[in-house]
Amino acid sequence: MSKLIILEGPDAGAKFSFDSGRLLIGRGEECQIRINQGSISRHHAALTFMGNCWQIEDLNSQNGVFIDGVQISRQQLTQSTRIRLGTINVQFEAGPELQLRSAEPAQQVPAQSAGSVSMDDIGAIGNLTSSILNEIGRVIIGQKQVAEELLIAIAAGGHCLMIGLPGLAKTLMVSTLAQILQLQFKRVQFTPDLMPSDIIGTDVLDIDEQTGRKSFRFIKGPIFTNMLLADEINRTPPKTQAALLEAMQEKQVTASNQMFKLPPPFFVLATQNPLEQEGTYPLPEAQLDRFMFNILVDYPAAEEEEAIVMATTSRRDIKLQRVLGAEELVKLQAVVRDLPVSPHVVKYATRLVRMTRPGDAEAPEFIRTNIHCGAGPRAAQCLVLGAKARAVLHGRLNVSCADVKALALPVLRHRIFTNFTADSEGITADTLVSKLLEAVPEPDAKDYK
Predict the structure, then answer these.
(1) Comparing C-alpha atoms, which of 438, 440, 418 is closest to residue 429?
(2) Whole-angstrom distance, CA of residue 233 vs CA of residue 417
(3) Could you say which DSSP state residue 291 is in?
(4) Cβ(320)–Cβ(176) under 8 Å?
(5) Where are the alpha helices (DSSP H) in 2-143?
(6) Model-level pTM?
(7) Bridge partner list, 15
(8) Start-end of H helices in 51-163
(9) Residue 202: in which H helix or E strand, if any?
(10) How does pLDDT run across 224-236, given as a tens digit for each residue?
């Protein structure tokens, strides 16, 4: 068994042995490796066994995790290693399970065990998709299309805006997905008095008791996570909404004249109530365009609603199974990026986006009449990337125009803006996108001459 030995502090000399699983390190009572010292965060770090090695991950602690004097966010441990957690040094001693498990042939590992599927096997990824959706279905009744679109966006590395009435399980679906994928999850309730520092973090003044020396220390905010739920994002002013822009695009945060990389993978999943608009602030177009998908969460069907009432009015204790971890998800995103796509599909996606612009010479008449501003190039990027992710999650090597069509509504509905004519006649963006899918043909032979 591997061991972690505490070398300093009030717990010096304590030894913890382990040979598999995931162990939390911190001051919290729920931590398997508990270190009771002021520089240690409640959930400071985690040790995870990843098939043939242990991995240590910083859980956005205030004072960091260091190996050989270098601060790390995640690193593999395959041998004896000295680690500093805050101001406490600990010693990791590799156990025999590393050598034993790394020597096992790959075919002896069950193909569908968590984290064991090779990301080069597209068919196996298709099986993982079914497993994830089945696990979500144990908690969320119905909403299968919403769950699949969320999963596609996550596989593509994109962000989602979920619009639906209260009580439709938007927050529950996001937190359930975070448990199944074993991602660090944080929820921020957006309110009118929320400030950018409440999301990004803030500087605090530290005073050394011995020397009296003063210095500022940056305390990271909730944005330093894998999955951030921005609940009711339109209830906070644009100044605070803009705090997410750099993080969503660059996967980093700039604060106190320093740049902080966000832990991969990183997603923002935001919710919005479509009815109650009093005291809300519409999302700026630049903010909307950062969201890969705009997902509408509708009422459940009659039989689904009956099942929901039956399930939620009785005692339930559902233990969700981990299907993928953060590291496997990053590999999945790499598979999506590496999947080739034909010029035929790219041409169709680009044509579809260009036809949303009323100023384009080939735009249909109903677009010229009802839209005052169409989608930009990022829409075509999201269509192609989403189509690739959909193909991978369905276990296919080929990306088709059907994948593009399936994602046209969530990609385009928040990127085209109707004018007064459309609004006065009750014509919505969804109606126009649906008509556009019928009006815009796929490329044919003459398009390549």
Answers:
(1) 418
(2) 20
(3) -
(4) yes
(5) 96-103, 122-139
(6) 0.70
(7) 5
(8) 96-103, 122-139, 144-156
(9) strand 201-207
(10) 999 999 999 989 8
